[in-house]
Amino acid sequence: MGNALLRCFEGDDHHHPQGGRARDRYPYYQPQYYGGDPPPASAAPPPPLPRPQPHHQPPPAPHGAAAPTTTQAAAGPNTGHRRQRNSGAHANGAVASPYQRSSSTEDIDESSAEGLCDAKSFAKANAMLIQVPVLGTTRTFWRLSDTATRISRKLALILRNHHAVGKRLASPLQLSNIWIGIGGGSATGSTVKLRGVSFTDKGFGVERVRDDYRHLSAVLRSLIRASGGDLNRLPPDYREFLALLESDALAMEDEFLVVNNAALLPMKNRTEAFLVLHERIVKHLGRTDRAKKKRILARLPYEKDWLDTARANTKINQWVVNVNNEYKRTPGDLLRLNRNVRSHLHEYNDGDGIEEALYCEWPELLMDMEWLLHSEGELQGTDIENKFG
Fold this sequence. Notes:
- Residues 1-112 are annotated as: Disordered.
- By secondary structure, the protein is of the alpha+beta class.
- It has helices at residues 119-125, 146-163, 206-226, 236-245, 255-259, 270-288, 290-298, 306-312, 331-343, 353-361, 365-375; strands at 5-7, 108-109, 116-118, 129-133, 140-144, 168-169, 178-181, 192-195, 199-200.
- The strands form 3 sheets. It has a 5-stranded antiparallel beta sheet with strand order 2-1-8-7-3. It has a two-stranded antiparallel sheet with strand order 4-5. It has a two-stranded antiparallel sheet with strand order 6-9.
């Protein structure tokens, strides 16, 4: 399979509107526990996370400049609240993921690479990290382009699909293994293939799964550098995503969080994603499990400064002033403001800029909503996997 092209499953992240077919679920196959570790009780919920530290943001950098990032910050400010798990090796006889083709041979493409470009050349021609003005301020913000997040997710999906059938990379993934679609009428980067790699079930287990994601993190960093991007300017949610890929505590059940990570959302889809997460936390858990809702709200970021941030942004402040129900400095009201803005994005004729402004002002909000739902065993009950199309 040395020169084979291994193809990411086409259509794995299309959005299915209400009334369409039922959304797929990733059926984690049951782990086998070795070394005398007893299996956990199947019905027991995961232990609650310790409350994450507040997200202390540095003062805004001068217009056009990025705030300095320390080496410690590169690991992500929330790395410390990631839950430690005992993860046993998983059986190789896995139930196929709904994202996985029915036969592994269908992922192999021996044809020419017409319409594909090697990743390094592609990155040189397409910026992965872009600087954008923050609507309502004089500041700028560095974020990943939609092309970069699309490629990141496609690569994660390729790995996850093979892990789902008990296979892992036979050798470390390299940037030279990646080929990216450049035409065909679809969005740039929507097709991602691997060349010169093979997957094996030999030695498959959680440690090899972690190795695959560590190598993916290194490849994504290389891709950004190849495009001329400065890794010190990565937005905090993407830094957290890379830290998750590199985590020594990554468990098999965390793969759902990896491939559906909020850091990989297209900018235009962030409102839909927020609304499904908000519905799960505020409405669903408000009806079914208020203790979970309370724990999640207590651990949301930006508790001390979010209202100051909203008032300082002249565009977002339009939704803060002159309201019947005045906003207070609570995590619940942070979600309420975001919901009100996202439900009326064009009320003040700001176009798509207000969506981007919400991300730039609170870049880790959706990621933390996701993580906290994941820690409570509630993330897969959302429709988040269909918000990346």
